[in-house]
Design goal:
With 106 residues, this protein is mainly beta. The chain has a domain at 11-18 and 35-96: GroES chaperonin (10 Kd Chaperonin, Protein Cpn10, Chain O, Roll). The chain has no helices and eight strands. A six-stranded antiparallel β-sheet has the order 6-7-1-2-5-8, with no helix packed on it. The protein has a two-stranded antiparallel ribbon with strand order 3-4.
Length: 106
């Protein structure tokens, strides 16, 4: 998939990953009751940040990483009809390893 957008500096373009539509007990959650996903896939990253000396420091996240971020963080945008989130790298809480899913604690 080619995105016609490239974030600048320490910004990251993320596509939210949908959460499970069922609870562990098998109850189906309707769309209106679902929470915003807090995990996503990195689709594009900026070049990095420069320190006071002018040295460029590349970002730690890379395209393809599955990340965990704040529920209400970032700026939601629509590019070619698809919704994405633009975040600063500092708003990303961590990188997820494996295929497990994460949800907010009740």
């Amino acid at each position: 998939m080619t995105i016609k957008f490239r974030p600048l500096r320490d910004r990251v373009l993320i596509k939210r990953l949908d959460q499970e539509e069922k609870t562990p007990g098998g109850i189906i959650i309707p769309d209106t009751a679902k929470e915003k996903p807090i995990q996503g896939e990195v689709l594009s990253v900026g070049s990095g940040v420069r320190d006071d000396a002018g040295t460029l420091h590349p970002l730690e996240v890379k395209v393809g990483d599955r990340v965990l971020f704040a529920k209400w963080g970032g700026t939601e945008v629509k590019i070619d009809g698809t919704e994405y989130v633009i975040l600063k790298e500092s708003d990303i809480l961590g990188i997820l390893d494996g295929k497990g899913s994460v949800s907010t604690a009740s």
